[in-house]
């Protein structure tokens, strides 16, 4: 590598970075208006503004990538959900519960100027039950005089309150140092691949696409004796279902079965649920209702699965109700809206009649195999050499950027690092990805590709 202009250290650093598997997840919870979004903005270094000025506005983006002291992690912001029909206490606690379920550590934000309220106490009870590491943030301590207010929060029984002014940045660095200590290096992994247990499946899709129908139909096939299954770590919200003679762990099914009817914030709540399920899953099955036009919400859910780096299967449901005319439009919509995930195995099913449910299993297996594919370095570089020779990058400003070599830094999903002599345009990178897929498969998996340019 050295003779190509990259020294060994540089290469190693790039590989380490690319090899980082799933990032640990930090949830920020608390009542409305305590300053959660302001704090999240601080943590993100204001790279992404998440504070909404209109209450009740739907925010579907709930997880962000952050970095502190050289460590990367994900932040789940729960600031987007307003009080609804359940009433404040239940709403805040339920919302926090969702976020906490998928989190490796939690920041619980309290408004120190107001002190602990009944709603705060309700969240504390939930946090105790969840058993995740909690860092207590006493927010709105804008100056030294507020420190006394913060001290009162010892009374919550969550240990030391950390006085912070999210607005002015006071104390946020110290808070993050404590958070990093609480956050595990790598998220706790209960992936079946690692334990030899059942593979973990997230069944996702917008409301009414047929998620609970599919789950019920599948569960009816055969009941599984859970305790007898080796390598099974199981939350009460997960469900073990046998399909084609194999056990599959459908994660976070409580969110599917428990039909909480929410008005305001319902979309946000659904997004949070989807994000939580994806965190825990290896492969996502996105259900799409073929009787209705493919919607922005469908595409958003597909995007969430891809961004989460999970293997992906797309199941077109309600095939029993599809007429010829609708079918014509459906295929065009798929062509138009879902080209980016052309690599995802597709099954046409009916949760109602059971049509083609058996096809789900080979699709899941294909996607998981793609997700775990590793290309040996020698093979990869032979392939890259061919590409460079047959399809060189267009000349830009008198120079021709060239891929010098590449390597696969990780799997689940496959991560590649390409080392290049100049900036590679997005179009060329897409071309390389397309050719990689043609050459090595990768069916059903997103591919991460980063490019290092020789300075
Ligand atoms: P969320 O609903 O918990 O996400 O709260 P927001 O982040 O939207 O903040 C609610 C209000 O509190 C906003 O007007 C913020 O400007 C204000 N706020 C947030 N953090 C602080 C702080 O540290 N000090 C003061 N004085 N105000 C703050
Ligand atoms: P969920 O909100 O995604 O869990 O959706 P449900 O499973 O509750 O289904 C929503 C509606 O679609 C219900 O009325 C189901 O009976 C109906 N449904 C689900 N699957 C099918 C299917 O395969 N064919 C038809 N025709 N209807 C279905």
TrEMBL record:
Q: Which SMART domains match?
A: AAA
Q: Where does GTP 1 bind?
A: 30-37, 77-81, 139-142
Q: Name one Pfam family in it.
A: KH_dom-like
Q: Keywords in alphabetical order, please.
A: GTP-binding, Nucleotide-binding, Repeat, Ribosome biogenesis
A GO MF annotation of the entry reads: GTP binding
Under InterPro entries, the record lists: AAA+_ATPase, G_ENGA, GTP-bd, GTPase_Der, KH_dom-like, KH_dom-like_a/b, P-loop_NTPase, Small_GTP-bd
UniProt key word Repeat: yes
Question: Where does the EngA-type G domain start and stop, copy by copy?
Answer: 24-187, 199-372
- Superkingdom of this entry's organism? Bacteria
BP-aspect Gene Ontology terms: ribosome biogenesis
Please list the residues that bind GTP 2.
205-212, 252-256, 317-320
| Listed HAMAP family | GTPase_Der
Subunit and partners: Associates with the 50S ribosomal subunit.
For this protein, the record's NCBIfam families field holds: GTPase_EngA, PRK03003.1, small_GTP
Its function, per the record, reads: GTPase that plays an essential role in the late steps of ribosome biogenesis.
UniProt record similarity statement: Belongs to the TRAFAC class TrmE-Era-EngA-EngB-Septin-like GTPase superfamily. EngA (Der) GTPase family.
What protein am I looking at? GTPase Der
Question: Which species is this record about?
Answer: Streptomyces nanshensis
**Could you tell me the gene encoding this protein?**
der
